[in-house]
Structure formats: structure tokens, C-alpha cells
Specification:
about 180 residues; alpha+beta; about 30% strand; six-stranded mixed β-sheet
Length: about 180
């Protein structure tokens, strides 16, 4: 009788652990889906409605970090100022998140940003040129908020598109060695 009781107890504990694991995985999947939905909606509102107020403590951690080649941007107000360059620098914005997926607290976003360069953009004066930029962002989420973003794109593409005179074709001229 004791052996049967122990066997039933072990099976019960084992099935509880399995159910607990399933619940944990279901919770993690639900949180990931919620994070992706919030993230996509946030950038759509920011760029299409030109609403920088979405960069706030509801959507970003107080100590959020934007990784840049010139050093990290830290905090909500600094993040808002950084991303507001896109709103002040461009009109006729077309924005598409081509794909977003994730695992755990990490999201990956593949995007395309297009716009007419009509204002100052990170110190580059308005050129009237159109920018067509694709890139990828690695995002770290914490408690349903954006904690860190690290964008990957070709900076030379931006400079070439914004600083080349409209309609001109620029060909790098290389001197031959004689």
C-alpha cells in the first residue's frame, strides 16, 4: 500500500511540473505576442501620427538605452529627443515593419523607412532628397516595456541619399596609378 501511495504521489508531482511548465511557456508566448503588438503599434503611431508622446514611461523603461555608434542614449527624454529627429527631418513618411519576431525578452524588427528630407536630421540640413532606408533592430523588453534598442543599417546609404544633390549622379572617381 505504501509503494502504491508513493507511486501515485510521484506521478502527481511529475504531472504538476509538466502542467506548470506548459503554463509558463504559454505565459511567455502570450507576453511575447503582447510585446510585439505594443512595439509595432508604438512605431506606427510615432511615425504616421507624428506623435512623440508615445515615447513615455508606459512604453519605455526609465533607464531605456538606445545604442548608437556615438555612444548610448539613456533615458526616456533623451530617447524622445533622439527619435524626434525623424519627425523633424522628414515629411511624406512611409513606414513598414516588414517582420517582427522574438524569443524571451528579445524582439527583432526588420523595417523600411522612406521620407522626404525637409528638415534638419541629426545635423544634416534639409536637402529635399528622398531617403529609402532598410534596417534591423534588436530590442530588449522588460516588464512589457522597451528597455533597449540597437539599430543596424548602412549609414553610408543615408549620407549618400541625403547629401547628394537632387538628380545628380555621383560616381567615385579613382585616379589610376601610372
Amino acid at each position: 500500500m505504501k509503494k502504491i501511495f508513493l507511486l501515485v504521489l510521484l506521478i502527481s508531482i511529475s504531472s504538476c511540473k509538466t502542467e506548470s511548465k506548459k503554463d509558463t511557456l504559454a505565459d511567455a508566448k502570450a507576453q511575447l505576442e503582447k510585446d510585439i503588438e505594443m512595439y509595432v503599434n508604438l512605431w506606427d503611431v510615432f511615425l504616421y501620427k507624428r506623435d512623440a508622446s508615445v515615447i513615455n514611461s508606459k512604453n519605455f523603461t526609465e533607464d531605456c538605452i538606445i545604442v548608437t555608434a556615438n555612444g548610448n542614449i539613456v533615458g526616456i527624454e533623451a530617447t524622445k529627443a533622439f527619435y524626434s529627429n525623424y519627425l523633424s527631418g522628414f515629411t511624406e513618411i512611409e513606414w513598414e515593419i516588414k517582420e517582427t519576431f522574438g524569443q524571451g525578452n528579445k524582439l527583432i524588427k526588420h523595417y523600411n523607412f522612406k521620407g522626404k528630407h525637409t528638415g534638419d536630421f541629426f545635423g544634416i540640413p534639409a536637402s529635399g532628397n528622398y531617403l529609402d532606408l532598410s534596417g534591423t533592430t534588436i530590442v530588449t523588453m522588460r516588464d512589457g516595456k522597451i528597455a533597449k534598442e540597437h539599430d543596424f543599417f548602412n549609414m553610408q546609404t543615408i549620407l549618400d541619399q541625403l547629401t547628394t544633390s537632387k538628380g545628380d549622379l555621383v560616381i567615385d572617381k579613382q585616379k589610376s596609378i601610372n
